[in-house]
Amino acid sequence: MPGFRHMLLRDLRLACRQGVDAFMAVAFFIVAGALFPLGVGPEPGVLARIAGGVIWVNALLAVLLSLDRLFQQDYEDGSLDLLVLSPAPLEVTVIAKTAAHWLTTGLPLIAASPLLAVLLNLPAAAYPVLLAAMAIGTPSLSLIGAVGAALSLGARRGGVLMSLLVLPLYIPILIFGVAAVDAAAMGLSARPHLLLLGAILAAALPLAPWAAAAALRQATE
Amino acid sequence: MPDCLTGQDLSCIRGERLVFSGLSFRLDAGGALVLRGPNGSGKSSLLRLVAGLARPAAGAVAWNGRDIAADRAAHCARLAYVGHADAVKPALTVTENLAFWAGLRGDSGDVAHALARLGLDRHAQVAGRFLSSGERRRLALAQLGACRARLWLLDEPAVGLDRAAQAILEDMIAAHRREGGMVALSTHTEIALGEADSLDLAAFTVARPALEAEDA
Description:
The complex is a heterodimer of chains A (221) and B (216).
Chain A: H1 2-17, H2 19-40, H3 44-66, H4 68-76, H5 79-85, H6 90-119, H7 127-151, H8 158-185, H9 191-220
Helix pairs in contact in A: 1-2, 1-6, 2-3, 2-6, 3-6, 3-7, 3-8, 6-7, 6-9, 7-8, 7-9, 8-9
Chain B: E1 4-14, E2 17-28, E3 32-36, H1 43-51, E4 58-63, E5 66-67, H2 72-78, E6 79-82, H3 94-105, H4 111-117, H5 133-146, E7 151-155, H6 163-178, E8 182-186, E9 197-200, H7 209-215
Parallel strand pairs in B: 3-8, 3-9, 6-7, 7-8
Antiparallel strand pairs in B: 1-2, 1-4, 4-5
């Protein structure tokens, strides 16, 4: 698929040249997470108890912050018209853009999550599961986020609208992501929760690009 | 059989407003169609209908008698659209900008040649953010040279161009038409096209007393 490769490489190149954007999401993730020990107090037991939830909520919000990067600039500078008009299927273009978004947002978040886990005193046994859950869960965040980002194009206060659209859809990912980490921390099997995260990804992978492409066609009309 | 593009009894609604209705046109191979009319008469909207970005409220645009909505991919492959916005990424160089659009279409042949044609070869490695508005416009028009599209849809292509660039654009259009290509463009200034059909959208505009009173 030459269209997929071109789109992916362009967005990665843009993200590298405008490195601050991608860095912001990770910086937010860490800084916001570091507030919790200060706010809740340094009691290790309490922090360990809430670590999984704090990491996941911060990941959700960090992804949300970075979503406007996905289509907004292309919409404003006229690129989106040309993307819709390109012979490559728009769904493939959306998958490529979402993949670029995940590589520049989701992947750095996964890499930074052990740091946050240390700050929050997450039990050592839960680290592998945390990484696995993030690896399966964050692509879904990008995919579902793409639908919200596409739907809110052209709306006034689009960012707020996008949060309202996307956050409710993130709830299942949050629940199973936290459940996996908590299960591992308590010495239980995290397998069912990871499988459910995988199921969400398996559903989002075909459905979200299709829905986002339809929303993009609507936005350019 | 030579190709032809037709619009049959088109109506367009923007927002809640009927912009034009009952509009028909025909564009044959090697032909040019110039859209004229005052601001808000629907020139850009018509070009977007023809591109397939928007759907007509009534009527149909057809290629060789077949509705373009029936096979969008084929229609996209045969057209090149240059809209109001230049679609130039500030962070990419001139060459990267053009190579991306040409590559996405699958025919990444003559990027360097297309840039040279519009006098952008000197700026090939310059980032888009350092281009003037006229140079950005040239870069947008360079897409036409970098891809082999039969149908060019140009929305106010001469805006921001200097005299030399406009002459290049006129040459490109003439060469494109000699090879059997089609051009539909909207303009307020004079662009020398030789023999061309003119379509005045004011004739199809639905009367808008309130707005016309404001204009007067």
